[in-house]
Specification:
With 193 residues, the chain is an alpha/beta fold. 39% of the residues lie in helices and 20% in strands. The longest helix has 22 residues, at 118-139. It is globular, with a radius of gyration of 17 Å. A divalent metal cation binds at residues 8-9, 97.
Length: 193
């Protein structure tokens, strides 16, 4: 018997750090699963280990450089395809949180699936915790930016740090900021922070 595989991402919109996409097939019920954004950090951390022990899963990281080189949509699509390939032995049904399936055959999509389906909630948690841990780990290598505080998202403090120190090698240079007087051109993303 094959089970539904839930897929979700963390890090689509930050100014720095990777995109992380996770796919999860739960082998047993886990209490307390929900969209990772609705859970406390402590709760996510506790569920993270429980999910890994109770599932088949695959987690994909795409670096800021890959996002700059290929675009966020390509990175999302290639991550999803990698997950589907790695978990196809255990699932023939895949569900992505969101409003697009990136033209991928056999990939269902549903808005707010991360709050409705436990396997997508679990994927949301694996992606979020994996990304947060990565940003915490590298934070000491980039002391000017305090990545452990904002995880690379466009907070006021982070934008002020970019104004003062410029972008680091893990910043997404194609994500342009109105706050820095940058304008959109080509395949770049303009962010209104």
């Amino acid at each position: 018997m094959k089970f539904l595989c839930g897929i979700d991402e963390a890090g689509r919109g930050p100014l720095a750090g990777p995109l992380v996409v996770a796919g999860v097939i739960l082998k047993k019920d886990i209490l307390g699963l929900n969209d990772s954004k609705k859970l406390s950090e402590k709760k996510r951390e506790k569920l993270f280990d429980e999910i890994k022990e109770s599932s088949k899963y695959h987690i994909v990281f795409k670096s800021a450089k890959e996002i700059d080189d290929f675009g966020i949509s390509f990175c999302l699509k290639s991550s999803i395809l990698e997950i589907m390939q790695n978990l196809q032995e255990f699932s023939d049904s895949f569900l992505m949180d969101g409003n697009t399936n990136f033209g991928i055959k056999n990939l269902q999509k549903e808005i707010k699936a991360d709050a409705k389906y436990t396997c997508v909630s679990a994927a949301s948690i694996l992606a979020k915790v994996s990304r947060d841990r990565f940003m915490d780990k590298i934070s000491s290598n980039y002391p000017n930016y305090n990545f452990d505080k904002h995880k690379g998202y466009g907070t006021k403090a982070h934008i002020e740090a970019i104004k003062e120190f410029g972008r680091s090698d893990i910043h997404r240079v194609t994500f342009k900021l109105k706050a820095l007087g940058e304008t959109e051109f080509g395949n770049q993303t303009l962010l209104s922070f």
